[in-house]
């Protein structure tokens, strides 16, 4: 018992301290606690063009704020000609746009890294595609009159907490020019319903094509600033860093990824799949925030075949693909990889970095064919 305790940090109470950096050690209770709060999208939900809201992944750093829409206001302030303070009805009265958008957490794939950065331990399914409805941010920025000296727009959510000893609001920024792109929305509906509390009710920013961290939930303040924003989630976190002393480069667009719906039936505990021999229609989805999806390949035991692509359902949403597989009896590992029009090809090997972001290594699904 004593010796087990020393190498197993698995006790909620009086547990030894967390590993200081990436680790090969057992999963900690802190990671389990995060994984239970922030769920992924079950892979079978890749079958839907639009992910039902309850199956969409979630990533919430602090607590979900409870917001009474009657008291809630959005302020647009800072380096603007007119400070605006808007109710939800004011925002709903502005031009209305709906866009299918695939969101993916930058940490997706983290738990497949060796050593593993200690954080939300995603496997491969921190993704979802919703039909988001809102008003283009550019219209409200024009109403407020962003001044010529402004360089960035800062977006702040109502949630609040601590990370690495710093007391924080969740806040992110975009360059002024980027913030004016037409696809950037202030979204108040997801799949035709008001946002759920966990997805940012009553209003969230949506930055299509970028990893999820850019799409600030529970948005209540927009500020035009005249120097680059240095907030924790902008300047410190969400960087590709080689080690603790490397400032790294900012995480922005979603790297290409394809996922397949695991065929056959799962074992409850291991999720090992079993299916019958013969022709098997494999289906999946592929997306990239860098450029349109150009090709998807389906892999069996290290050999690759081109998949068929369905028509795209929008510039910012995943694309369905299928491939007919002649399943032969035995043990196999199924995989897939996406290639985009900018020539980005999804790697087979892990993309390691200090905080475990952007690991788009190909999925690997062991199956037994009988
Ligand atoms: N205010 C706020 N916005 C946030 C977050 C957060 O914790 N607080 N998490 C971000 C991250 S890291 C991701 S991946 C997405 C997740 O959005 P979803 O939970 O709606 O899928 O929200 C982003 N916006
Ligand atoms: Mo995320």
Automatic annotation (TrEMBL):
PANTHER family according to UniProt? SULFITE OXIDASE, MITOCHONDRIAL (PTHR19372:SF7), SULFITE REDUCTASE (PTHR19372)
Against Gene3D superfamilies, the record matches this protein to: 2.60.40.650, Oxidoreductase, molybdopterin-binding domain (3.90.420.10)
Locate the Moybdenum cofactor oxidoreductase dimerisation domain: which residues?
A: 267-364
Highest rank taxon of the organism: Bacteria
Among Pfam families, the record links this protein to: Mo-co_dimer, Oxidored_molyb
Which InterPro entries does the entry mention?
Ig_E-set (IPR014756), MoCF_OxRdtse_dimer (IPR005066), Mopterin_OxRdtase_euk (IPR008335), OxRdtase_Mopterin-bd_dom (IPR000572), OxRdtase_Mopterin-bd_sf (IPR036374)
Record domain Oxidoreductase molybdopterin-binding: where: 61-233
Keyword Coiled coil attached? no
The cofactors named for this UniProt entry are: Mo-molybdopterin
UniProt KW keywords: Metal-binding, Molybdenum, Oxidoreductase
Organism source for this protein? Answer: Kaistia defluvii
| Full protein name | DMSO/TMAO reductase YedYZ molybdopterin-dependent catalytic subunit
* Disordered: annotated span: 1-25
